[in-house]
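Annex B. Sample input.
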Amino acid sequence: MKKITTIKALLFAAALLIVSTVSAQKNKFLEGKKYTVQFYEMKPAGRGKALPSNFLIKGGKVESDLMYEKMTLGPAAYKVTLDTTYTEDETEIHMVKLEAELKDEKNEYKWEVTVSNYDVEGTCVQTKSGVEKKRYEFAGAEKTKK
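Annex B, continued. Sample output.
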């Protein structure tokens, strides 16, 4: 009986290790990318004016200086939900979709991002007790290295 319990515990620990390793992996296509983007606050009356910012993917996390300024949203760990390559009009396109969530004492934040080759677009939503407080949409392109 003791032997079976020990084997079960070892198998459970091994499964946990595999799952945590897979989910913590960084995406090589995304890592270290820096994008110049325009954020737009989405309000019931319509879309707000363009707010320039940077969007970074670094260390397995996503972040934006504007979102930190507007919502005190720091870096959030992301998980890749889709990673595919396809051809459109004889051009190869590498598309990656990712999500990131972050919770603090009062608010919850969610990023939904799509990266296609050198372009990025997505949303960042702040909710409190399940009610949406702020929503930003953004789009931009990878910053060129000088």
